[in-house]
Structures are given as C-alpha cells and as structure tokens.
Specification:
Layout (H helix, E strand, L loop, with lengths): L1 H6 L11 H38 L22 H5 L8 E7 L5 E7 L6 H10 L7 H10 L2 E10 L2 H5 L6 E12 L4 E9 L8 H15 L4 E4 L6 H5 L21
Parallel strand pairs: 5-6
Antiparallel strand pairs: 1-2, 2-3, 3-4, 4-5
The structure holds coenzyme A.
Coenzyme A (COA) binds next to strand 5, helix 7 and helix 8.
Length: about 260
C-alpha cells in the first residue's frame, strides 16, 4: 500500500492508488498503445488493397475506374508511323486469321488509334453514307470524348507477329465515336464497320467495348441515334427506344 501511495505522490494512510490499481493502469496503457498501433496497421492494410485493385484488376480492354477522357496522340500524317504501332495495353484482339502464304491478320479494338479524317470518310463512303467536309470531320474527331476503332493489323509473316514485331500494315475497318460532358452523358456517333468485315460480330464488339469504356468512365447515360434499319441491332446490345416514354427530339428549322 505504501508503495502505491508513494507512486501516486500521496503518503496518506489510505492511498488512492493501490499496487493492483497501478498494475491495472499499466496494463491499460499497454493495451491502449497496442490498440492504437493495431488500428493504424489495420487502417493501412485496409487502404492498400483498394489502391492495388485499381491497377491489378483493370481489364485489358478498358479502365474499370472513373478516368479522364482517353488520351490520343496528336494526329500524324505518316502512315508508316501509324502502321508501326502494335496493339497496346488498351487494345483488344477480336479476330485472328491466317492465310496460306503464312501471313496473319488481327482485327483489334482500340481507343487510342490516330484516325485521319480521310480514313473515316473512306469508311463512310464504303457503307454508302454521304461525304462530309473534311475540316468538319477533323474537328468532330478532335472534339470527340472517345474514338473507338477496329483496325486490321497484318503481318506478312505470322512468326514475326508472334514475336511481337510491329505490323506490316494497319487499316481502319470500323469506328464509333462518342461526344460527352465527361460526367453524366455520352452520345455515340458514326458507328460503322467496313462491308468486307460485317457479319462477323465486329459491330457488336465495337459497340459493346465503346459502351463499356463510357460506363467505366462513370458516365451512366449513354445514348445514340439509330437509323431505322439498325434499331434491332442496338436493341440486341441493350439499348432501348423511348425508355420510360422519353422521346428524342430534333430541332428542324422552319426556314430551311
Ligand atoms: C450496323 C453495323 C455496324 C453492324 O456491324 P456488323 O459487324 O455487321 O454486326 P455484327 O456482325 O456484330 O452483328 C451482331 C448481331 O447484330 C445483328 N445485326 C447486324 N446488323 C443488323 C441490322 N442492321 N439489324 C438488325 N440486326 C443486325 C447480326 O445479325 C448479329 O446478330 P446475332 O448476334 O444474333 O448473330 C454494320 O452493318 C454497318 O456498319 N452498317 C452500316 C452503317 C450503319 O448503318 N451504322 C449504324 C448507324 S446508326
């Protein structure tokens, strides 16, 4: 008891702190310190996996997290430079074919291909769409939030492709682009696949990957304008006509 009183600085006959109390307090201090260290450790540990999961679980096709608009390189007028570009981390190989001469071709979906206005217009012409002024097409591509492409990467020698050599040629065979406010809404435009490559599931994959890229960027309202002949195509991909009675409306100037 004396010791307890001395420890507490109270030499009274009836000390406020007993040996037992001091021991209990020590244990409490040790427990508090251990609890604090444990809490910090658990907090650190709880945060780390979520940071890691963004990188580790990101699908090859597109980011799973909200992200800024995909960055595209400045337009290049050099086809050689473009053709040297192989599938990158954001690319998805949709189709692979080999020919008898040993060549190999891959149809690759990408969101970072440089598209020349002339290439897009050639594709539009191939599906029978009217020509548009190239300067406006260039502006439309430049100002789009997302430009998705289907390109055929071809190698004369399949072995070279398997060893990661750059393609001998890269040709645009499909495209879809989206305009967006980058937060809530996106509208998909210019969905087309070269006639030579239609009917192989590429149009479907193009729209699916494009929509997925927008949803992954946390843009929840994805819309498009469908030609009457392709309404069923988009319906099969999850798009609805007039959902909840909402109508798309067009301003048609009366003075034209
Ligand atoms: C519409 C388009 C992009 C489809 O591309 P595609 O590569 O031929 O389509 P897919 O091979 O991926 O077809 C996927 C499915 O949609 C179906 N489909 C394709 N075109 C369709 C159409 N016009 N209407 C209804 N269904 C269609 C296919 O039969 C296939 O069905 P399945 O999965 O049951 O076999 C292509 O035909 C095209 O570029 N058309 C000209 C441009 C155009 O009209 N674009 C749309 C502008 S709004």
């Amino acid at each position: 008891m004396q010791a307890g009183g001395a420890l507490c600085g109270l030499p009274s006959a009836k000390p406020l702190c007993s040996d037992r109390t001091v021991a209990i307090r020590r244990v409490q201090h040790i427990w508090n310190a251990a609890f604090t260290i444990l809490s910090i450790f658990i907090l650190n540990h709880a945060l780390k996996p979520s940071r890691r999961s963004r990188a580790v679980f990101r699908p090859r096709s597109c980011s799973t997290q909200p992200r800024p608009p995909p960055q595209r390189a400045a337009p290049s007028s050099s086809p050689t430079q473009r053709s040297r570009r192989g599938p990158g981390s954001n690319d998805v190989c949709l189709l692979e074919t080999r020919d008898e001469a040993g060549g190999l071709a891959r149809v690759v979906f990408s969101t970072d291909t440089v598209v020349e206005p002339t290439e897009l217009e050639a594709l539009c012409a191939a599906v029978g769409w009217p020509r548009r002024p190239l300067a406006k097409v260039a502006a439309a591509l430049r100002n789009s939030y997302l430009v998705s492409t289907l390109c055929v990467h071809s190698w004369l020698d399949a072995t070279a492709a398997e060893h990661g050599a750059p393609a001998d040629a890269v040709k645009l065979v499909g495209l879809a682009r989206a305009t967006s406010d980058g937060a809530f809404n996106a509208t998909v435009w210019d969905v087309l696949v070269s006639p030579q490559y239609q009917g192989q599931g590429l149009g479907k994959a193009l729209v699916e990957h494009t929509t997925r890229a927008l949803l992954d960027a946390d843009i929840g309202n994805v819309t498009l304008f469908a030609d009457a002949s392709v309404v069923d195509f988009y319906k099969s991909l999850g798009f609805s006509v007039d959902p909840q009675g909402i109508k798309g409306m067009f301003y048609l100037p009366s003075w034209t």
